[in-house]
Amino acid sequence: MRESWQERFAGSRDVLLSAGRQQTVVPVLDFVVGGDEFIVMAGPCSVETERQLMATARHIRRTGARVLRGGAFKPRTSPYAFQGLGLNGLKLLAAAREETGLAVVTEVMSECDVAMVAEYADILQIGSRSMENYSLLEAAARSGRPILLKRGMTATIAELLNSAQVILDNGNPNVILCERGIRTFETAMRNTFDAAAIALLKEISHLPVIADPSHAAGRRGLVPALARIGVAAGADGLLVEVHPCPDQAWSDGEQSLDFSAFDGMIAALKPWIEVRGIELRRIEPRGTEQQRREPEGREAARVCSVEAVR
Ligand code: PEP
Ligand code: MN
After folding, report:
1. What is the pLDDT of residues 33-83, one digit of tens each?
2. Contact at 8 Å (CB) between 247 and 253?
3. How far is the CA of 2 from the centre of ligand 1 (A)?
4. Cα of 215 to ligand 2 centre, how many Å?
5. Residue 102 Cα, ligand 2 centroid: separation in angstroms?
6. How much is the pTM?
7. Which residues lie near ion ligand 2 (Cβ < 5 Å)?
8. What are phi and psi of 121, to 5 degrees?
9. Which fold does the domain 21-309 belong to in CATH?
């Protein structure tokens, strides 16, 4: 007889759906991840400048995002690439939350930084390169903050679930899984987006699942299609890289959407979200009257021209 999913993933039984277990909904500020609202997390790969971050935060909020993403501690492929602004980046993220009401998700790379990152962030991101660092997972779990657990780029689904189990074992039930593409023999895309993993995780686990089309695609033109696939596969939300001027970004510009591409993608996703019986809620814009009235695109153009002469 074929083994059941329960048998197959027995090492991480607390993350599996079982009789009487409810879907986990992760509370963050004034909303939940994993409920009947589709949650959009968006923002730059790296926090670069106050102007870049604030313009992005204001824009994505107007489009319906709930969470601002942005790396202050950056794991980079090259040791000589920009490594992030560190504490100053965290402070900029907190200032953006203060002004916009968006929640903040940002990566923590080291156990030593957990307390500091947890002071500023609403959700701690565990990056692909850190997924199996159990001492980091334990420390992050014990901070009490919700954890966005990205799938390792060479991790199996069983290994992803084991890492989620480690977080639960350390007293933190608020885990959000994230599919961000895996390495396969295919090299045309940055990674291979494993949409089947999203469908399977939704079938076997009670944890919310988020799709990251940006790191899977590696090219901005593919991001909307992968986002649509993620929604169709059952994802509870999206993590997507957005930058006011992607060609000037300090990291991952080639896969970042500009503001109008982001708006177009979200508008095109709406019917796909609604057909699942969930919704994308748009909250009342905050900000000054001038910011609310600023024509779409004007703010990005202004930010880009200033940043270009830096
Ligand atoms: C990121 O979200 O910018 C990032 C570094 O992602 P990953 O860990 O999936 O590569
Ligand atoms: Mn990135």
Report:
1. 999 999 999 999 999 999 999 999 999 999 999 999 999 999 888 889 999
2. yes
3. 36
4. 6
5. 19
6. 0.95
7. 45, 252
8. -100, 155
9. TIM Barrel (3.20.20)
